[in-house]
Design a protein that fits this description.
Layout: H1 3-6, E1 10-16, H2 22-31, E2 35-39, E3 53-55, H3 62-72, E4 76-83, H4 89-98, H5 106-113, H6 115-124, E5 132-136, H7 141-148, E6 156-160, E7 170-172, H8 177-187, E8 194-198, E9 203-211, E10 217-229, E11 232-239, H9 245-261, E12 267-276, E13 279-286, H10 292-297, H11 303-308, E14 326-330, E15 335-341, H12 345-349, E16 363-367, E17 372-376, H13 385-388
Parallel strand pairs: 1-2, 1-4, 2-3
Antiparallel strand pairs: 5-8, 6-7, 6-8, 9-10, 9-12, 10-11, 11-14, 12-13, 14-17, 15-16
Helix pairs in contact: 5-6
Length: about 400
């Protein structure tokens, strides 16, 4: 190897956040020749061993992060910056501007991480969104009384204005002054401001998109299933979602207007919305993908790799290998059951799981903590919500 070859820098992505679900993304990036500079405040984060370089900092501490990235500039060619959560977006923008990288800039940060600012865009474009009853830093008796006078029999949502991975969110019905005060106090733990808005009953969805000036596109749609019981929250993702052709056409029409409004933004965008009585209500937007590991676990494209391809002269192949409809979830606790039936061959083939988690047989009695679980099912399954209860008692493949 001559001196010239030694001086060739390796293309790398600056990746903010290294939790358990991110290791599937990082392994996929590495498999495709992209180096990963991982940053996380947890020194023992689960994705650390898969990265090429690790920086142990809080994702909000942009000064220390940039100071260290400067030293890595001679070794790596930075392609882009990706953050896994909204609270890291200010740092993502600062890094991009410091190293002149394309992607999220500071002009878009406040728009994306502030729920009310997102809703202002929806209202401007005449896109349906839940009504905001209150937005501000302090809530007093007059405001509470005004909200209570609207319709006490209906539910309301109280949440922090910043995106905090659903922390600080309360849904209350037949609310009293005491309940509103308690929920508002909870929301203000996570943000300096809060929003009180109407509650829309319906199915909860996400749509992952990639935006650039030449061509913006939808990557995937997801149906989000939530159930809270016994202080344990079940969260399952169904991909592709159950939206029919007509609903997808309606979604496309709305997104075209939004893409046009955000024409100067380059990067990932996930939008949460609710479908109620055949009507779409847009809730919020985020400049990152909500469930990129789910895409890989079902054998589809790596959305982050699709994002990186924006900035590469020579594109990396991001092949679709499997489009079966499945439910994906990452289980946070060890689960014991009399009969857990899984279909793991897809994950094994892609070398995305540790063999110690699963036996060769489809049936086993234990799923270990932080192991991925995929459940295949028929398109005509009667009730998605039945699957939620399997996490407490029984997990079965529906095929």
């Amino acid at each position: 190897m001559d001196l010239r070859e030694k001086l060739v820098k390796k293309k790398a992505i600056i990746y903010l956040g290294g939790g358990s679900s991110q290791k599937y993304i990082i392994k996929s990036l590495k498999k495709n020749g992209i180096k990963v500079i991982l940053i996380d405040r947890n020194f023992n984060c689960e994705s650390k061993s898969y990265a090429d370089f690790f920086l142990n900092y809080d994702l909000r501490d942009h000064k220390k992060i940039i100071r260290n990235l400067i030293f890595l500039k001679d070794k790596f060619e930075f392609i882009s910056t990706y953050g896994v959560a909204d609270y890291a977006m200010a740092t993502v923008a600062t890094i991009n501007e410091k190293f002149k990288l394309k992607g999220l800039g500071s002009n878009f940060v406040k728009l994306f991480i502030n729920k009310e600012n997102s809703k202002k865009i929806f209202r401007k474009l005449k896109i349906s969104t839940p009504k905001t009853f209150f937005y501000g830093k302090e809530i007093n008796s007059k405001i509470i009384q005004k909200i209570s006078n609207k319709n006490e029999s209906e539910k309301i949502v109280i949440k922090s204005v910043d995106q905090n991975n659903s922390k600080g969110v309360s849904i209350i019905k037949n609310y009293s002054k005491k309940e509103i005060e308690k929920a508002s106090k909870n929301a203000l733990k996570y943000s300096k401001s809060l929003i009180i808005e109407e509650y829309i009953e319906g199915k909860n969805y996400s749509v992952d998109c990639l935006l650039n000036k030449k061509k913006s596109k939808i990557i995937s749609t997801s149906l989000n299933l939530y159930e809270q019981s016994k202080n344990y929250k079940n969260n399952l993702i169904v991909q592709p979602s159950d939206l029919n052709k007509k609903e997808l056409q309606q979604l496309n029409k709305v997104l075209k207007k939004l893409f046009k409004e955000l024409k100067n933004y380059i990067g990932p965008l996930t939008i949460d919305f609710i479908v109620s009585n055949n009507k779409f209500y847009f809730i919020e937007m985020s400049p990152h993908f909500h469930n990129p590991s789910g895409e890989i676990l079902r054998g589809n494209k790596n959305p982050v790799l699709s994002f990186i391809n924006f900035f590469l002269t020579k594109k990396i192949r991001n092949k679709v290998t499997n489009l079966k409809k499945i439910i994906t979830c990452i289980i946070s606790e060890m689960i014991n059951s009399k009969n857990i039936k899984l279909s793991n061959q897809l994950l094994k083939n892609q070398n995305l799981i540790e063999s110690k988690f699963f036996s060769k047989k489809n049936k086993r009695k234990t799923i270990y903590a932080n192991a991925p679980l995929i459940i295949y099912f028929k398109f005509n399954i009667k009730s998605y919500k039945k699957i939620l209860h399997y996490l407490d008692t029984n997990i079965k493949v529906v095929n």
